[in-house]
Amino acid sequence: MNIFLHLIYDFFKMLVWGTLRVYYRHILLLNRAQFDSKSPLLIIANHPNTISDPLLVVVHLREKVFFLANYGLFKNPIASWLLNRLYCIPVKRPQDVDGTPQNNDDAFRRCDEHLQKGGNLFVAPEGVSFMERRIQPLKFGAVRIGFSAEIKNNFDMNLRVLPVGVSYDAPNQFRSRVVVNAGELMDLRDWGTAYHENPKKAMEDLREAMEKRLQNLTIHCADAAEGVFLQKLEQVADSETKANTQNWFERGQKWVQILKQLKTNEPQTYIHLQHQTETYFAQYPAAVPADSLRLLKLIIGLPVFIYGFLNHMIALAVPYFLNKKMNMYVGYHSTVKYLSGWFSFGLSYYYQIKCFNAYFNDIQWTILYGLTLMPIGWVAWEYYQTAKWWYQDHQFQQLPETAQKSWHDLKTQIQNIFEPA
Q1: Who contacts 106 (Cβ-Cβ below 8 Å, separation ≥6)?
Q2: Which end of the chain is more exposed for a tag (fewer CB within 10 A), N or C?
């Protein structure tokens, strides 16, 4: 790989690093030392949020990483030329080739060559991306790639699998939280004997081991419905005091296990809790109690919000309307927001500063104005969130006493089941 492409990779990595930290309120990196592991590495991660998942993983690795990307991205000749030179290897899926037989021999050859040279390769082994809090059944692609490279080197290549779990509290929302959790390395040399004895069984066992690792590194619900149910339980628990990112993640893993036990040992309790939760949110979706100081914050901060909103309404409108216009799968919303935000915020800030200087013709005031844009944007966004919480609390206070009692009963039940004294 020539020096020019290295520089492009480093530039985009730095740009992505900054963008992710702007888009997400908090990125919690667990087991950081695993990201410094020596190459070659086969990096696997779950895939609930399309392009965001690999970026959140790879941006924390010091060494450069190649990506196994779906063939559909390469159909445009210009995109194919660029992606093939920018660390991407195309792999065909049935949906990419209209169900015709797939031939990925070239992709596997390129993966072998790259790993044998000591490179790192990112693979999303689920093969699909659904915005759900669970690990989808893994395909055999990552297993085949790992074994293929090791077989050619008589299981003496020192290729290891780095499993990484990515968990979002609200994956398509700006200023949400995400946990990137690296697991222990899986040395493929340990699977050499098993593969020589029974290749098919070894591949299935490794696939299951990878799947189990990813489940343990994430908040893994039994199905999509349970994931939605858990999110509503969290909303109740966090209505007045929101858990920090690590507590939220650890609580989520713990509560999933409790739900599993309830469903098995006390199915009636599980059904009752689920029915009570669904009934409340179906009747009063926007009514959630909050702390009483938020109205005072809104009154004091209104002038600052107006200033911030007026300076960002165009930049914010572009990602919003692009998402509406493109009508893409919800998993792409966050990607569209921050990719389009690169341009909308950059151009908006540039022309606003230019117009300010043209009008006032004072370089010192222009510099001061430019320096206020980003921080005042943060303040305006926090104000908007506070206003939403206040509105939810206001809606709650307007509910009849029976509905408010239902909420408090639900919160008490959750406390007794998940966090007993």
Answers
A1: none
A2: C
Query: Could you tell me if 245 and 177 are in contact, meaning their C-beta atoms sit under 8 angstroms apart?
Result: yes
C-beta separation of 232 from 411 below 8 A: no
Q: Distance between CA 203 and CA 145 in Å, rounded?
A: 11
Q: Residue 26 has which token pair?
A: 């908090």
Give pLDDT, residue 314.
92
- Half-sphere exposure for 275 (CA within 13 Å, toward CB): 6
166-177 in b/e form (b: 16+ CB < 10 A) is: bbbbebbebeeb
Q: Specify whether the CB–CB gap between 396 and 237 falls below 8 A.
A: no
pLDDT surpasses 60 at 143: yes
* Chain centroid to CA 416: 31
**What topology does CATH give the domain 3-216?**
Glycerol-3-phosphate (1)-acyltransferase (3.40.1130)
Please say if the pLDDT value at position 395 is more than 90: no
**Contact (CB, 8 A) for 398 and 390:** no
Could you give the C-alpha distances from 317 to 303, 344, 395, in angstroms and in order?
A: 21, 9, 27
Relative to beta strand 41-45, strand 65-70 is unpaired
Closest by CA position to 286, among listed 391, 409, 153: 391
Give me the chain's average pLDDT, please. 89
Q: Which long-range contacts (CB under 8 A, 24 or more apart) does 368-375 make?
A: 373/311, 373/312, 373/349
At residue 8, the pLDDT reads 86
Instruction: Give the Cα separation of 60 and 55 in Å (integer).
Output: 9
Please say if the pLDDT value at position 258 is more than 90: yes
Beta bridge partners of 88: 67
* pLDDT tens-digit series, residues 241-252: 789 999 999 999
Q: What percent of the chain has pLDDT over 70?
A: 94
Domain residue extents for the chain: 3-216, 224-284+404-418, 294-398
What the block records as the tokens of 310 is 């007026």
How confident is the model over 22-28, as a mean pLDDT?
Answer: 93
CB-CB neighbours of 389 under 10 Å: 20
Q: Which helix (H) or strand (E) holds 179?
A: strand 177-182
What's the token pair of residue 359? 């009008």
Report the length, in residues, of the chain. Answer: 421
